[in-house]
Amino acid sequence: MKNKIGFNVLAWSAAVSDELKPIIDRLKTTGYDSVEFFVGAPDESAYKSIGSHVQSLGMETTTVFVLGADENPIDPDAGVRAKALDKIKWTIDRSHDLGAKVICGPYHSAFSVFAKRAPEESEYERSAEVLHKAGEYAQQAGILLTPEALNRFECYLCNTMDQLTHLIKKVDHPNVKAMFDTHHANIEEKKLGEAIRKIAPILGHVHISENDRGTPGSGHVPWDEVFSTLADVGFEGSLTIEGFTRNDPDFANSIGVWREFSQPWEMAENGLTFIKAMGAKHGL
Predict the structure, then answer these.
(1) Which of 51, 108, 158, 170 is the most exposed place for a label (fewest CB within 10 A)?
(2) Per-residue b/e over 274-284, b at no fewer than 16 CB within 10 Å?
(3) Vertex 245, ends 46 and 51: CA angle to 5°?
(4) How many domains in the chain?
(5) What is this structure's pTM?
(6) What does the pLDDT look like over 106-144, one tens digit per residue?
(7) Which region holds residue 270: left if phi is over 0, alpha if psi is between -120 and 50, else beta?
């Protein structure tokens, strides 16, 4: 399989610390090519330590993060938008410490912050301005930014590939592309294959996530359609499993994960087998 396959360690923890090293080691022996980390923990030295460890194993890294209400790129207050840019730059620095080449997540706007109305064009323009400046900073670090569309219950600016395409075209920077997450698309898109084709020209990263965030292949996401379309459009980026558990209660509570869908290692082992089988079936 030519695509790299990754696993997001949020299934265990939102922290970046030495406690992840045995997990990373086992992901390597399981057969993963890359590891995805949540950037948020304040201990900056830990990012370099973990990055060096991943590099020593010959693995790659990607990262994900979110922004809060006081650092919202679409806020009318220029001071709030400046905080958003500062947080994105800090995340780029920490991702660089980890050796990451891709940063994904819904940082086009603040996570779970709603205006009780539909998105306005001025908000896309403000987001695009912040992301363009972030793209300039990311370019210096050799990092690709891939903002993510989320379902309607977690954000309102970008729920669909139509909206995400509109935003990324406004950003107009080579280091800012898009990501596709099968969990969110399962909620918001009519046809996942059509959605992938729509975003394909600017697609930089893909999350392989089941409809309930459990083990890929165990739910009702139309996986044959997803993998065949990714093959048809020639996607060459990483396919990263993002599944959630209650292992890290604070993180789980923040995203509304109230029950267990799959145990982390069951998700990692069976998910890898599933992706490889689908890749072989569809020529990825």
Answers:
(1) 170
(2) bbeebbeebeb
(3) 20
(4) 1
(5) 0.96
(6) 999 999 999 999 999 999 999 999 999 999 999 999 999
(7) alpha
